[in-house]
Amino acid sequence: MKIHVECYAGHRGEQRPKRFVLRERTIKAVEIIDQWLGPDYRYFKLKGDDGGSYILRHDETADVWEMTMFDATGQNAEKSEF
Prior knowledge:
This protein has one domain. By secondary structure, it is mainly beta. The protein contains no helices and 6 strands. Strand 3 (25-37) and strand 4 (42-48) form a beta hairpin. A 6-stranded antiparallel β-barrel has the order 1-2-3-4-5-6. It starts with a strand and ends in an 11-residue tail after the last strand. 16% of the residues are buried.
């Protein structure tokens, strides 16, 4: 699923997700749990302010972000709906 991501650029110019828009909801990244490089992509596993865990994939060549995984474990019931 393609998404819009607002990033923070560190002192080395590396981008990290700060918040992203999923359908009509804006979710703030409260913790970057892990990040890694794939052959053509950069991946970020993060915890959202809604309690969900997400894996976001960034195609740096095309500058396209996608959500590749969502886990609602730990979310409270009122915030788990899309």
